[in-house]
Amino acid sequence: MKSSLRLCALLLLFGLMPITSQAVLQQKLVFRAPDEGPFTQYVTAVLEEAYAKLGIKLEYIELPRVRGEQLATEGTIAGELGRTALLEEKRRDLRRVPFPLFTFDIIAIADRRDCGFCNLSKIESLAYVDGMDSITKAVTELPQEPSVVTPIDLEQVLKLLASGRVQFAFMTDFQFKSSELSDNPHLITHKLSTEVGFHYLNEEHARLIPQLTYHLQGMHESGRMQQLRVHHGIKPETPIEPIAPPEQLTVVGAIHPGLLNADGTGTLWNVAKSVFPAFTEQLNTVVSSWQRSIQLLQEGRADALIGIRSDQKIENIILSKYHIAYDDSIFLFSLEPDHEGPICISGPRFMQTLVNSERPFYRTSDSLDCFALLDMGRVSAVIDYKANLPDWTEQPYKKKKLSDPQPLFMAFPDNSRGHVLRHLFDNTMVKTPL
């Protein structure tokens, strides 16, 4: 009798083992690890929370995109965290979770110094990560066929662009924002398309799709997804509220010989006069000092400030998407013998950040005043553009380059009206590139 009971117990134990093992396996799903960055952290946070409601934990392994796609199709890994619907055209064994998980832009990136506005109709060479279906589709829709390189990861794409071996790099907007490229003021971007990302599972796990969809929808309706966006620093785009075309606009700027002259001539004024009249009847141009120009914009007495570098860090302003010109190199001018007196600046305040010095700074409203003080020995040096050197000097100044030429932008107030004006300006610039 005892032996019969023991046999029954063993049979029951062995009979339960496959079920128990399967239950344990169902507590974990493995996916290809996404690129690092706030946006992908947000997407994985959403999915991890939704799967947790099903008692499932997510794990990630580093894989090239194409290899991950193959393993997902084979069922070696569970699926793809986020892909567009184009995936279904080539991977029939992957099932879409029918909830739009995120949207993103496909963008083209190039160096302003090489191609100015970098028109998409003149692309000669480009690089993008192999296996990105939305980009492959965008490339086939270009006006002419360029030379294309498709490395296995984003790092190699970045190196190709930085070294000048390709003219353009195509990538997602969240890849760009998470990369070192986003801090490079010389790079210009163009949006190619807006795409929707979905979560995909191998058909082996298709039974999870209804419940997963239910929980994702619930997280959206409860505001939980928005909370996660805020937590990971994903800011929504400011909606553009339509306004009536302004009857007149006032654009202010500081004198910069050749770029912005007191008589209303110069490269920058030419840009303003060719763009703003497309959406206003009257354009008023005002020339003032740097500090006065900034004050007029911040007080709402000017609608735009022309000729701003991205590193000027002015409060409560936004910059145009497209550059309007390049400034000149900035130098530190001094006389022999050098002394430890103040450094004089008449230009924007960012200039004083270009020198690592404990010396005090002395400000004037005019470049010539700074150089007069230098000649009298009242200051030890002047930070300025070479074009602002005086004609009267009898002895040459020593000069040290502090900054190479940088792109200049149009600045607008950071308010609803300013956002609309920037939108109008950028859209017009697209039609009348430099």
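The record above closes out task 2.4. Task 2.5 opens with a second protein, given below.
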Amino acid sequence: MEVSNKKSEPCGEELIETVVSLSGMPEGLIRSELGEILDQSEQNYGELTLDQLRAAMITYLEKIHEDLVEGSVPESWGS
């Protein structure tokens, strides 16, 4: 029998709550931005895994990088 001491990673709403609380940003702002990121990546909030969140964040950061290289800013940043 295999016994693991590894703590399971949070997922779903628990993962979102963890990200929100550790971000240090205003809760409404981070929830809104995180919601947009997850909507764009078509992730299911209730079953979100850490790997899925990482993939969504990479896509988000790549988009921001492209926008900055092109000289524009993301819509969520305002004008």
